[in-house]
Automatic annotation (TrEMBL), chain A:
Keywords: Metal-binding, tRNA processing, Zinc
Organism: Diatraea saccharalis
Family from the record: Belongs to the eukaryotic/archaeal RNase P protein component 4 family.
Protein name per the record: Uncharacterized protein
Highest taxon of the lineage: Eukaryota
Gene Ontology CC terms, in alphabetical order: nucleolar ribonuclease P complex
Classification via Gene3D superfamilies: 6.20.50.20
UniProt KW Zinc keyword: yes
Pfam families per UniProt: Rpr2 (PF04032)
An example molecular function term from Gene Ontology annotations: metal ion binding
One GO biological process term: tRNA processing
UniProtKB/TrEMBL annotation, chain B:
InterPro entries documented for this protein: RNase_P/MRP_Rpp29-subunit, RNase_P/MRP_Rpp29_sf, Rof/RNase_P-like, Rpp29/RNP1
CC per GO annotation: nucleus; ribonuclease MRP complex; ribonuclease P complex
Primary localization: nucleus
Protein task: Component of ribonuclease P, a ribonucleoprotein complex that generates mature tRNA molecules by cleaving their 5'-ends.
GO molecular function terms noted in the UniProt entry: ribonuclease P RNA binding
Family assignment from sequence similarity: Belongs to the eukaryotic/archaeal RNase P protein component 1 family.
Species this chain originates from: Diatraea saccharalis
Protein's UniProt name: Ribonuclease P protein subunit p29
Any Pfam family the entry gives: RNase_P-MRP_p29
């Protein structure tokens, strides 16, 4: 069996993300502590955080965002394009993500050429 | 000369093809028309370029802002033990996965083949959510404290005990027991005196002689 490079760190990031999400309901301070840890682990090991995980974190305080618990989600129109706007309720930071159907932009990880090899 | 010109036109064509493939579908037709344009004013630099360079807003929270939001004072009674039990269950599953215990069928012996690998992955794993008990310590009042670890800093563990009290325990002078489902692992806190993020990149010596100070 082939080993994935940085596997233990990926597992750690995965676990910490789950804990951070769970903690955001109980104690936002701890949630952002775990979020900070995710970022620093990824930095130290030179790994990329998966966009799905990254987009669930507040950009500034790194707390996991959950609608109506730690943040507010809204859909807004600007220049005839649709955006999801997340507002963190702890640090009041806004984050805009484009979600327009007419735009043919996809994330790199969703493209078929992003998959080089599948290791079980 | 002719070969050079040929490569020039080839590379130009390659760039145009690349642009066509990366631009959104609606813009493909406009690519060649846009390339024929001359930008006369593009050569001259604008005068107020310097004025435009404003101070960048910092992306991260500063320490002072974090303190104002109350990220540093997790008070003694602010959390409940029952809230953390699911986290501990999550941690045991994660740890079983990381250490590959089912495959190894138990923790390997000290001088066996798997020992090196086991200690390495144990050292690199995460301790948030683990059940810890202090076995030995320089300070006798810490001995016997048991709880779920919620914070792991360079020199301390923060853990919450069954009576909902959060205590901070120094690693340097303590020996811990770690409960993992049916297993019990004893380790010296001294060897884990590294920041939790840095621990995953550092290497541990395969066998360390315990010195009792
Ligand atoms: Zn925030």
């Amino acid at each position: 069996m082939k080993k994935v490079q940085g596997n233990d760190s990926f597992q750690r990031i995965n676990y910490l993300h789950q804990v951070s999400k769970y903690m955001s309901m109980k104690n936002p301070a701890l949630s952002s502590y775990y979020g900070n840890l995710i970022v620093s682990i990824a930095k130290k090991n030179v790994l990329k955080i998966h966009p799905d995980i990254k987009r669930q974190m507040c950009k500034k305080c790194r707390c996991t965002l959950i609608h109506n618990v730690t943040g507010k989600m809204k859909i807004r129109n600007k220049n005839k394009l649709k955006f999801v706007v997340w507002t963190c309720s702890i640090c009041k930071t806004e984050r805009k993500l484009p979600i327009d159907k007419n735009k043919d932009h996809t994330l790199w990880v969703d493209k078929p050429e992003a998959v080089v090899e599948i290791i079980n | 000369m002719s070969t050079e010109e040929k490569t020039n036109t080839e590379s130009a064509q390659a760039i145009i093809n690349f642009l066509k493939s990366s631009v959104p579908k609606s813009e493909v037709a406009n690519v060649e028309a846009e390339l024929k344009k001359d930008f006369v004013l593009g050569i001259k630099k604008s005068k107020n370029l310097k004025q435009k360079a404003r101070k960048k807003k910092s992306k991260n929270l500063t320490r002072r802002e974090k303190k104002a939001l109350g990220f540093y004072n997790i008070s003694r009674n602010s959390m409940k033990y029952e809230d953390l039990l699911p986290m501990h269950l999550m941690w045991s599953d994660y740890m079983f996965n990381v250490l590959d215990i089912e495959k190894l069928s138990g923790i390997p012996e000290c001088y066996s083949k798997g020992w090196d690998n086991f200690t390495q992955s144990f050292y690199r794993a995460d301790f948030h959510g683990s059940m810890l008990e202090v076995v030995r310590s320089k300070c006798p009042s810490y001995v016997g404290k048991k709880g779920i670890c919620i914070m792991d800093t360079r020199y301390t563990f923060k853990m919450i005990s069954k009576d909902n009290v959060i205590t901070t325990i120094p690693k340097q002078s303590s020996v811990f027991d770690l409960y993992l489902k049916t297993f019990k692992v004893t380790f010296f806190g001294k060897l884990l005196c590294v920041r939790p993020a840095e621990r995953s990149t550092k290497k541990l010596k395969s066998y360390l002689y315990p010195d009792l100070n």
